[in-house]
Amino acid sequence: MTSHPYFPLGLEIQDYRSNESGLFYIVGLFSTGLAVSLCVILGLAIMKRTSMTSADKLTILWFALSGILHCFFEGYFVTHHDRMGPAQDIFGQLWKEYAKSDSRYLVSDSFVVSIETITVVLWGPLCLLVAYLTTIKHSLNHPLRIIICMAHLYGDTLYYATSLFDYYVNGISHSRPEVLYYWVYYFLMNFVWIVVPAYILYNSVCLVSQALNQFESETRSKKKR
């Protein structure tokens, strides 16, 4: 059996090869490409609508970030999940680094493949659509935000729950115990997709509720005339 740094110990990873590139190199290259993409998207959005609030800009960046990660980074996993072990391209090496916090990504685990496929097919494109709808202030903007934020909250909750169930009930740990891998990679990086969607969800629900209350109030006023 080929030795590897993943938990649980003794996990069989087909054709595993350790990363050839350093961590700072692959993270730096990925971050640079992501930053450039976000800057281009924000620039195009500002050109489309010059009178844009800071809140709108941050919202566009958030949904653009989510859409890019879902469609391309997670899309890579969905199309390569059965051959992640020997991968040496940038995305493959990044996934192998992240898998130190969740080795299910290297063994075609049925849950992560399924949830990531749904994310790539549905939520990724919808995130990019919401970024555009926010730019043009379309009426479907907030209803779609609510749907996507609920999907993020539900998906992340399931992600944590299935991993913790394996740990506490089955005695199987998918993550290395070091702070970097468990608390930064596994917990913090995913928790962002709970905190931010929860905030956006709250704001959108409040706005839709206010709009409906105003509409109902105006409707009642017209009937009284």
UniProtKB/TrEMBL annotation:
Identify its membrane topology class.
Multi-pass membrane protein
Cite the PANTHER family for this sequence. 3-BETA-HYDROXYSTEROID-DELTA(8),DELTA(7)-ISOMERASE, STEROL ISOMERASE
Q: Any stretches that span the bilayer, and where are they? A: 23-46, 58-78, 111-132, 144-162, 182-202
For this UniProt record, the keywords arranged alphabetically read as follows:
Isomerase, Lipid biosynthesis, Lipid metabolism, Membrane, Steroid biosynthesis, Steroid metabolism, Sterol biosynthesis, Sterol metabolism, Transmembrane, Transmembrane helix
Q: Where in the cell is it found?
A: Membrane
- What GO molecular function terms would the record report? C-8 sterol isomerase activity; cholestenol delta-isomerase activity; steroid Delta-isomerase activity
> Where primarily located?
membrane
Q: Can you name this protein?
A: EBP domain protein, putative
Give the similarity note.
Belongs to the EBP family.
Q: What InterPro entries does this protein map onto? A: EBP (IPR007905), EXPERA (IPR033118)
Which PROSITE patterns has this protein been placed in?
A: EXPERA
Q: Which cellular component terms (GO) are annotated to the entry?
A: endoplasmic reticulum; membrane
Q: Does the keyword DNA repair apply?
A: no
**Domain of life here?**
Eukaryota
Indicate the segments annotated as coiled coil, or none if absent.
none
What GO biological process, any one, is recorded here? sterol biosynthetic process
- Record keyword Cell inner membrane present: no
Q: Where is the EXPERA domain?
A: 55-201
Organism, scientific name:
Talaromyces stipitatus (strain ATCC 10500 / CBS 375.48 / QM 6759 / NRRL 1006)
